[in-house]
Design goal:
7 helices, globular
Length: about 190
């Protein structure tokens, strides 16, 4: 009998740039301090190679080995890295990107389509386990949830410190990109979406 496959997607704790509503893509910012009940049982976690994902995993899963994968990074915002909407709102290319981020990319950055291709490469490297926990960024999490639910990327939310749990009937259903059979979200941090 097939066993279900569970994928847990945890968004890293907030950084100063996140609090300031900046585009923090490949900029390697540290997280701000946060409180959470650590899971001492989990032995292996995967995720982005960014500092903010590694640091979040170290607090949430202090006994786990962290396997970093650069393909799981946030979208690269190029010249718009660490800028805010207010700083970019009069830029015509930025306005076009807001309307069509799948095909238009920031100067020196990548489109959402490119990020999705990269994340798919990273997902193909998951261990062959029944349950996998990933510490990621908002963009990759929103992409993976949208794919799993058969919904639009823009309609998804990824809370900082939120554990987004997706379940499939079996590993093959996940690998063949069938829709998941259940989806839930729970906060792992003391203050929820900090």
């Amino acid at each position: 009998m097939d066993e279900s496959f569970v994928l847990r997607l945890i968004r890293h704790a907030p950084t100063r740039g996140n609090q300031q509503k900046r585009y923090v893509g490949w900029t390697d910012e540290a997280i701000l301090p946060f409180g959470a009940e650590p899971d001492l049982q989990l032995k292996m976690v995967m995720g982005s190679d960014s500092k903010r994902c590694r640091q979040t995993a170290a607090v949430l899963f202090p006994n786990a080995v962290y396997r970093a994968n650069r393909d799981l990074r946030e979208c690269h915002f190029g010249q718009w890295e660490m800028k805010t909407y207010e700083e970019l709102k009069d830029n015509q290319l930025y306005r076009s990107w807001i309307d069509d981020p799948w095909h238009i990319k920031p100067p020196g950055g990548e489109s959402l389509a490119h990020m999705a291709e990269r994340v798919e490469r990273g997902i193909r490297k998951l261990p062959d386990d029944r349950e996998v926990t990933l510490v990621l960024h908002g963009g990759p999490i929103r992409y993976l949830i949208a794919e799993a639910l058969g919904e639009k990327f823009q309609d998804q939310t990824a809370l900082h410190g939120g554990c987004h749990t997706l379940t499939w009937q079996n590993r093959q259903a996940f690998e063949e990109r069938e829709l998941c059979t259940s989806f839930s979200v729970e906060p792992l941090m003391a203050n929820g979406n900090m």
